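Review form for a predicted model. The reviewer records the input and the model, then writes brief findings.
Reviewer: anonymous (R2)
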Amino acid sequence: MKKNTDKNIKENLKSMAIIALGNLLLTSAYAFLTVPNNIINGGVTSTSLLLSHYLNIDIGYISSVITIFLLLFGRVALGKDFFYRSLFSSVCYMVFFNFLHFTGISFFFHPLIIVLFAGIFVGVGHYLCLREDSSTVGYDVFALFIHKKNKKLDTAIVLRIIGICVLIVGVATFGIKSVIYGIIFTIIQTQVIYLLNKSHEVNAKILKATH
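Model under review:
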């Protein structure tokens, strides 16, 4: 019994370490690369960047408020399982992003280099969190809730609508180039997640075949 308990503790600690690493990678990309270069991709960080521009409030505070709101909304709308799965990851995101952002470190290269590295970092970060069945809490909370209420409205469609709204405001605020680079960033990010998922599936099949 004690061995099983120790094993579970080790597995939980390993899972938490992976989630923390994933959040460190994606917050590094946001704090050091996309935010300083005003790259908009339609997510919560982009929304925070836009609100920061108009409200003249630091993006770190706005990002934390939105994340806490989405987390609490998810608890009410989607239940306690969602809340507990997402709580640790959300705390990691808020702590890491605020710390890295307030260091004032920024990197300014050609935008294509910025989106390449940002896409890779965020892609790997999200993959690590998803692999541990965790979420940093984004607009998927609204999408899941709306789909729960109306099965005809697919989560992908809802997310697309929200993303388009953010991108429209982004064009009006920072210009079309910021949005174009944001779209390229998103394509790289999602492709990285796709490739890592495929690689994980292949490795799992190989391990299964050898046992």
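Findings: The radius of gyration is 18 Å.
Further findings: Helices lie at 2-34, 44-55, 59-78, 80-102, 111-131, 140-149, 155-174, 176-209.
Recommendation: see findings above.
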